[in-house]
Amino acid sequence: RKVDRSVVTEEVTTLRSRAEELNVRLRSILQDIQAARAEKRYDGLIEIVKEAMTLAPDDAGLSSFLASLEAREDKIAAGIGDLLAQADEALSRCDYQSVIKFLSRIPDQRRDDDVQSRLGLAKKLKLLQSGFRQLVTDLPSTNELVTLEEDVLSRIARNGHAYLAEAAANNLVDPSVKKWCEALEAAIETQQ
User: Fold this and answer.
1) Are 140 and 151 in contact (CB under 8 A)?
2) CA–CA gap between residue 22 and residue 1 (Å, rounded)
3) I need a surface site. Which of 5, 26, 55, 184 has the fewest CB within 10 A?
4) How far is the C-alpha of 36 from the C-alpha of 41, rounded, in Å?
5) Gap between the Cα atoms of 184 and 141, Å rounded
6) In this structure, what are the phi and psi dihedrals at residue 4, rounded to the nearest 5 degrees?
7) Distances (CA, A) of 71 to 24, 33, 66, 78, 143
C-alpha cells in the first residue's frame, strides 16, 4: 500500500521502527516459551511469560499459561516448605541423617544459600556425632567406664565435647552424647 508521504514524519518512522523491534522481540520470546514447554523446562519461565504479556497483554493463551506456571511454583514452594519443616524437626532431635535426606530432596537449582548452609551443617554434625558414637560403640556401660585408661577416656570425651560444642553453637542438644560425656568425665575424675 502506498502511504501519503505527508503523514510519514520522523515520529511515525520512529514509532514504526519501535513496533517492529517489539514484534521481533515478542516472536523470539514466544519461540523460547514454545521450546521450553516442549522440553518441559518450566523453571524460570514465569518472568519470560510476564515479559511476553507486556508485549501481548490480551493473549489469553499466555495468561492461562502464566496462571498454571504460578500455581506450579506455589506447589513447589509449599513442598520445599514442608521439607524444610521436616528437616528442622529432625535437626531438633539431632537426627542428622534425616536432615540430610530431607534437604537433599530439594532440587539443586532450588537450594538457596540457607539450604546449602543447613545441609553443610547437618553433614558436619553427622560426621562428628557418628565419629563419637563409633568410639563408644565398644565401650562397656557407663558404670564400667572406670576400667578404661584415663587417656582413652579423655580422647573419647574430647571427641564428644567437640561434637556437643558444635551442636550447642547451633542451639542443639544431643542428650545421648551428653550423657556419655558426663559419664566419661565422671570416670576420669574417679581415676584421678
Assistant:
1) no
2) 22
3) 5
4) 5
5) 11
6) -60, 120
7) 29, 17, 9, 11, 59
The residues, ordered by sequence, that sit 6+ positions from 123 with a Cβ below 8 Å of its Cβ are 96, 100
- φ/ψ of 44, rounded to 5, equals 80, 0
Please report the sign of the dihedral spanned by the C-alpha atoms of residue 175, residue 179, residue 182, residue 188.
negative
- Torsion of Cα atoms, 189 then 190 then 191 then 192, to 10°: 50
Q: Which residue has the cell 539443586?
A: 108
Q: How far apart are CA 73 and CA 46, in angstroms?
A: 9
Give 42-90 pLDDT, tens digit per residue.
Answer: 998 999 999 999 999 999 999 999 999 999 999 999 999 999 999 999 9
Most confident region among 12-16, 92-96, 149-153 by mean pLDDT: 92-96
Instruction: Give pTM, 2 decimals.
Output: 0.72
Please tell me the distance from the alpha carbon of residue 95 to that of residue 129, in angstroms, as a whole number: 10
The arithmetic mean of pLDDT across residues 154-182, rounded, is 85
Which is more confident, 82 or 167?
Answer: 82
Displacement of CA 99 from its chain's centroid (Å): 11
Please state, in angstroms and rounded to a whole number, the distance separating the CA atoms of residues 160 and 152.
Answer: 12
